[in-house]
Amino acid sequence: MNNKEDERADTGxxxxxxxxxxxxxxxxxxxxxWGLILLFYLVFYIFLGGMFILTMYVMxxxxxxxxxxxxxxxxxxxxxxxxxSEAMEIxxxxxxxxxxxxxxxxLDIFLAPYNNSVQVQNxxxxxxxxxxxxxxxxxxxxxxxxxxxxxxxxxxxxxGIIDRTYGxxxxxxxxxxxxxxxxxxxxxxxxxxxxxTCGAKRYKVGQDEWxxxxxxxxxxxxxxxxxxxxxxxFPYYGKKAQVNYxxxxxxxxFLNISVNTDVNVECKINSNTLTTGGERDKFAGRVSFxxxxxxxxx
Length: 298
Known about the structure:
This protein is an alpha+beta fold. Helices cover about 20% and strands about 20% of the residues. The strands form 4 sheets. Strands 3-5-10-9 form a 4-stranded antiparallel beta sheet. The chain has a 4-stranded mixed beta sheet with strand order 4-12-11-6. Strands 1-2 form a two-stranded antiparallel sheet.
């Protein structure tokens, strides 16, 4: 042992850890030691921050404000219905106003931007059955891009104008169908617009038994005629580039669906460029929901 160790051993005293007045050490380090370690971490974190900023800057250079640089979405878009519920069910009693009033209110709100007066003010009266292509000129952006009118009146009996209850009061409900938006998608060729068909969904009821409600679904009516998504509403250029875009809709009206029974319905898109159901998503291009009309008269 050296003299210092001998002294500590003789006296039994321990060196103070928090502050040592003899060696001027704070938490076991001198001022110069603390300065060097703080300088190291300062330089280290400045370097990390600089690397992060540089990485973000390079990444942002690859992005386009109006169009995704890379698209990894399904080739066939999904479909959705309105009115919408979490369980994809529409259950009501025509004699009970409160049971279907929420559906009609939801449709009123959803269709408000499709009022003819709003569409005439914001969008163009386009030539049907042709793509509304608006290309950029090199580096010059053709923005904001125009959009075609989708007038609420084209939904006819399901517009909420002729019948404010959308058929729910009479047991002939309307369901609106829309395609999810996909930038740049061209859903048809040779002037053939995609169209929607609906029918009874085939579902499993036992280990090897399947069933469908074909007898209960009854007659259907589609609006616009033939349930078409006209080509003039495509391609879609994105929310920022096409600020007034009105997504086309198809309405299906159930004219004589069976009451007091669950009717499982499936609607799908039909197109000569889109395929429904694939390996990645068997529900691509189709939507299923349950409709039950309860009648207290039966």
